[in-house]
Amino acid sequence: MRVGLGVDVHAFAAAEDGRKLVLGGVDIPFDRGLLGHSDADVLAHAVTDALLGAAGLEDIGHYFPDTDARWRDADSIGLLREVRRIVGGSWEVANVDAVVMCERPKIRDHRDAMRKNLAGALEVDFSRVSVRGTTTERLGFTGRGEGIAAQAVCLLQER
Ligand SMILES: Nc1ccn([C@@H]2O[C@H](COP(=O)(O)O)[C@@H](O)[C@H]2O)c(=O)n1
Ligand SMILES: C[C@@]1(CO)OP(=O)(O)OP(=O)(O)OC[C@H]1O
C-alpha cells in the first residue's frame, strides 16, 4: 500500500473575467471562477497530485506544464483520467479523501456530483471517494474569499 498527499490553491478571478467555477468537474453556479491556465479545478488538481504522490511519480506540473498551450482551459478531470492511465493497472485506488476550504460556495450541495466525476476518472466505485467542504472561520485567504484551497489523500493498493 502507498499513500499520497496533494495540496492546491487557486485565487478567485474578478467577477468581470467571466471565469467558470469548476470543482471536482462540476460547474458550480457562483459569481466568480478561479484563475488558472487550466479550468483551475483546485479539487481535481489536489486529487491528481495525491495519486501521483502515492505512485511515487512526478507532480501535475511535470505532466501538464502551464507553459504548454495544450493545457489552456484544460478539463482537469480529463487530466486526472490521464494520470490514472499513467499510474497503470497494477495499482488500484483503495480510497481518496479530499477537503475543499472556502467560505462559499457550499460544497455539500455538490459533493456527490464531484465524487462521481472523480471516481469515474479514477476508475473506482463512487463509495471510494469522499469530498467535504469546510470554512476556515473567515481566517486567512480562504476566509477573506480570495481563493480556494484543497487537500487530498490517496491510498493505492497493489492488485
Ligand atoms: N465551503 C463549505 C464550507 C462548509 N460546508 C459545510 O458546513 C459545515 C460546517 O463548516 P465549518 O467550517 O463551519 O465547520 C461543514 O462540515 C460542511 O458540511 C460546506 O459544505 N462547504
Ligand atoms: C493542470 C495545470 C496546467 O497548467 O493547471 P493550472 O491551472 O496551471 O493549475 P496549477 O494547480 O497551478 O498547476 C497545475 C497545472 O499543471
Explain this structure.
The chain is an alpha+beta fold and 159 residues long. It has a single domain (2-158), classed as 60s Ribosomal Protein L30, Chain: A. The protein has five helices and six strands; from the N terminus they run E-E-E-H-H-H-E-H-E-H-E. The chain has a four-stranded mixed beta sheet with strand order 1-6-4-5. A two-stranded antiparallel sheet has the order 2-3. A hairpin with a 2-residue loop joins strand 2 and strand 3. Helix 1 (42-55) packs parallel to helix 3 (76-87) and helix 3 (76-87) packs parallel to helix 4. The mean pLDDT is 98. Residues 8, 36-38, 40, 45, 60-61, 64, 66, 71, 79 line the site of 2C-methyl-D-erythritol 2,4-cyclodiphosphate (CDI). Residues 1-156 form the 2-C-methyl-D-erythritol 2,4-cyclodiphosphate synthase domain.
Structure, briefly:
This protein is α+β, with helices and mostly antiparallel strands. The protein is 29% helix and 28% strand.
**Bound ligands, named by name, code or SMILES:** the ligand Nc1ccn([C@@H]2O[C@H](COP(=O)(O)O)[C@@H](O)[C@H]2O)c(=O)n1, 2C-methyl-D-erythritol 2,4-cyclodiphosphate
Per CATH, the superfamily is 2-C-methyl-D-erythritol 2,4-cyclodiphosphate synthase
Briefly, what CATH class? Alpha Beta
Helix count? 5
Q: How many runs of DSSP E, i.e. beta strands?
A: 6
Main sheet overview:
4 strands, mixed
Average the pLDDT over all residues and give the rounded result: 98
Total count of domains: 1
Tell me what portion of residues adopts beta-strand conformation. 25-35%
**What is the rounded distance between the termini?**
10 Å
Task: Briefly note the CATH topology name.
Answer: 60s Ribosomal Protein L30, Chain: A
Identify the strand order in the major beta sheet.
1-6-4-5
